Fold these 3 entries.
Entry 1:
Amino acid sequence: MDFNDSEEEASWREECRSWMEEHAPAVVSGSAADDTRVGAAAYLARAKQWQAMKFDAGFAKITWEREYGGRNGTTMQQIIFGQEESRFSVPAEAFVIGLGMIAPTLRAVGTDAQKAQYLNKLLRGEQVWCQLFSEPGAGSDVASLSTTATRDGDEWVINGQKVWTSGAQYSDYGEIICRTDPDAEKHRGITAFIVDMKAPGVVIKPLKQMNGGASFSEVFFDDVRVASSNVLGDVDQGWNVAITTLMNERVAIGSGGGGGMRTSISDLISLAQKRERNLDPLVRQRLADLYIHTRVQRFVGMRSLTAASKGKVPGPEGSIGKLSGARIATALGDLAVGLTGVSAIAGDDDTLAVGQSLLMAPAAHIAGGSDEVMKNIIGERVLGLPREPRVDKGVSWRSVPRSA
Ligand SMILES: Cc1cc2nc3c(=O)[nH]c(=O)nc-3n(C[C@H](O)[C@H](O)[C@H](O)COP(=O)(O)OP(=O)(O)OC[C@H]3O[C@@H](n4cnc5c(N)ncnc54)[C@H](O)[C@@H]3O)c2cc1C
């Protein structure tokens, strides 16, 4: 493991940093919390502007082929660009799902026609995409999903409900997984589709969050028609497509693709330094403790980076990083609000961002796999403990008891 940039990496970092310093200020907002305050339309316009700038400069997907808008760069170059981008509060969140999870899926399993139709527009930020996997009765166990797709000639008809769909209200397209063979085991008999989010029968109802925003929605499908050419991968093989998307999700979250924490440990240290007097000794201890945890997490992250730089797929350490990242997010938010006091809910843009960091922290414990699911993965794959019992193994999806 080597924590330092090679000469080549240092020069690439410098190139990314100077491009960011020149271009990012055009889209950076006064506060990272602006997306909940100025409304989705203004936020989206800035996000699209930023994505187009990145695409035109060859930073949209550094490792990809030129025909899809990449520059045939290395994984390490992509990681370094991500690190430099995360130093600026650029509006990248709208594209975390489309670029981080769905574009790699389209590239891996899409037909030539699908790639030609969607990839360039997706990378340039002309299209926003969402991920329609979770349902009211299928979250951690998403393979038990109930939304159906029934073949009707050259089309499929979708009926059912998805939930927690981030960005659904401003998305153009979605990747949806549906039950197409209820008589097969739950992981079989699922098919993935590309669905037009503006199609007749799609009803999107945003869910209000405790931070004042509404970043995800319930989405209802009522006889929504999808052409057969929009099947993603093979019919009844959608679980493999979903896994491709989910494998990319942790990488997208882990690389801090714009969603990340509203307040960092360095913001917190600056806040504490401004309080020259009356710094509670307990705050001092918590700050030091948190600093140590962020360092440890950085070193765990280095394992993934080292694996990536050698072309390997990151292992279960991704779950350790995800779990500890969520704990750090909660501790950071808690301490930040402790330091700013009432201004976290009635202050200026900077202190309001601190309040947002506490209100957004619970999401980190659930999105992309809950803490308990991460612990199961660590237990089974790192500690070698017996696997969880599976009552639905070898049984058709239709015969597994579930609530209506
Ligand atoms: C900010 C945010 C954004 C999201 N965006 C999207 C999106 O864009 N698209 C999408 O499809 N979904 C999205 N989700 C949904 C997310 O994937 C699910 O919330 C998550 O998988 C958990 O599912 P659930 O909410 O149904 O909880 P459940 O699976 O019902 O879990 C409830 C509780 O039971 C625990 N639990 C479940 N199974 C086990 C087990 N085997 N062992 C031990 N404990 C267990 C969980 O840890 C949790 O505490 C998002 C969620 C959040 C918070």
Entry 2:
Amino acid sequence: MDRREVDVVVLGAGPAGEVVAGRLGDRGVSVAVVEDRLVGGECSFWACMPSKALLRPPQALDEARRVPGAREAATGSLDVGAALARRDEVIHGLDDASQLP
Ligand SMILES: Cc1cc2nc3c(=O)[nH]c(=O)nc-3n(C[C@H](O)[C@H](O)[C@H](O)COP(=O)(O)OP(=O)(O)OC[C@H]3O[C@@H](n4cnc5c(N)ncnc54)[C@H](O)[C@@H]3O)c2cc1C
């Protein structure tokens, strides 16, 4: 087994852990980050990002319906499947590979 000594172990790679680890690393402190789910934490995969991805389509449709000129083109209904697919795209299908250093 590969054993290394580090100055600090950060538990959790959510926004807080990522910032702490990054700032310590910037100051030359050696850091190990331990994450038992996905690097990026709640915000990237279950909270901020997917909730905003789901809120945006109805918000955009509502905005278009309020603006004369655009309103006439926004005659259809919301495509729930497409909205969910966009949510899945935003959270990378729960794959954190893009968040890894
Ligand atoms: C629906 C929703 C929408 C939100 N929208 C926004 C928004 O728009 N803007 C905003 O600023 N905030 C938003 N938030 C809040 C935001 O998600 C949190 O403030 C943020 O994720 C907290 O970051 P954190 O690093 O403290 O915790 P988390 O993101 O929870 O990260 C903690 C990490 O630690 C890991 N972990 C826990 N225990 C262990 C262990 N023993 N060993 C190893 N790893 C462990 C977890 O797996 C997790 O990845 C939203 C929250 C919710 C629920």
Entry 3:
Amino acid sequence: MADLNDFRAETRAWLEKNCPEGARGAGPVSIGSRSLDLGPDLEVWLERMAGKGWTVPTWPVEYGGAELDRDHYRVLIEELTRIRARPPLSGRGVNYIGPTLLEFGTDGQKARWLPQIARGDGAWAMGYSEPGAGSDLASLSCRAVLEGDHYVINGRKTWTSDAVDCDYIFVLVRTSPDKPKHQGISLVLVDMSQEGVQVHPIRLLSGASPFCETVFENALCRADDVVGGVDNGWTVGKRLLQFERSTHAGINISGSQGGRAEESRVPELVQAYAGADDGIDSPAIRARLIRFAMNTEAQRFTQARAVEELKSRAPGFTSSAVKLTGALLKQEGDEMLVEAMGVRMLGADDSFSASERNAQRTWLYGKSLTIAGGTKEVQKNIIAKRVLGLPD
Ligand SMILES: Cc1cc2nc3c(=O)[nH]c(=O)nc-3n(C[C@H](O)[C@H](O)[C@H](O)COP(=O)(O)OP(=O)(O)OC[C@H]3O[C@@H](n4cnc5c(N)ncnc54)[C@H](O)[C@@H]3O)c2cc1C
């Protein structure tokens, strides 16, 4: 592999030449073919990065990656961040099911699915939760029965984010109902374009709806699309959850966003408190801001260390810890903004500015961060048992 300094220089030159202006700064990121109308600049960006293998920089070349090791990956991310280049591709394909297939998939599954994921060809949904199986996921009841060379799937999944815009879904199903509940589960890959898969958006108070209920009525999946072996879904599915949590935590190096340092929110908070009564001059508020700034730095160092210590594309149980601390920090920042903005945070109509309305939406959305990917309490249970080794 190229010397790190040479790689940095080559990468910098390539990015300057090939990253279009419209792919720099904040904005949309593709999660697959039906996700968003990206516009010409982002489409070019996705195509060029996929051509270099940099949509999935650490994957093997034969599956669309560039086989970068951790150090070269870090340099690539630093150079992307330097020009504020947006990740060209994100989502459950690149970050969740892709690395799971790399660890558990057969050669046939890898060859069939990974190159298309690397190109952003197809968006993926996640079919884990059910009305009676959330934190207690192993209680799931969606069934899959082998008939010839296909499984026939019946059941319903809830909270399937973005499913209405997705092409494929990875689903935890029960393949052996007579076995103990953790032992009769499999992870299967399902094409969502078939009649047997129906998606119903779930409306939220905000009017928007990223959530869906996904119903399977005699839906089919190929028998060779069981990932990691029949009845081994609990092991495979838990590893996928680590990929999900590590993505939330910013420490999944499967796609090209892992390890990017988020911009500090401290200047925004200082500005907001400067305009508040009893604001930035209050010693209590200054102390709170300083503690928040220090915790932000500590989180950044912890993320960097977690990436530094990686032996694969994401850590195991450490993901739960970094996800949790990151989510709590984000929520603390949101709460401080609410306090500083006062009634300006209540904005829902045009009498409030776009940034005020946006601050409110961000604050409300932030509440979900300690639920999605496993709740705060579930993460604490994992940390207690698996990281700290405390008794059950
Ligand atoms: C933004 C968002 C996106 C999501 N996207 C998806 C998706 O794409 N696909 C998908 O399958 N799911 C998705 N989910 C669902 C998510 O995985 C579940 O909401 C989550 O696992 C919790 O399950 P539940 O909602 O059934 O709550 P429950 O499991 O009913 O939990 C209710 C409360 O009880 C607590 N609790 C439960 N068990 C324990 C325990 N053993 N110890 C201590 N406390 C406990 C929980 O912490 C929680 O406070 C999403 C959720 C959110 C918020």
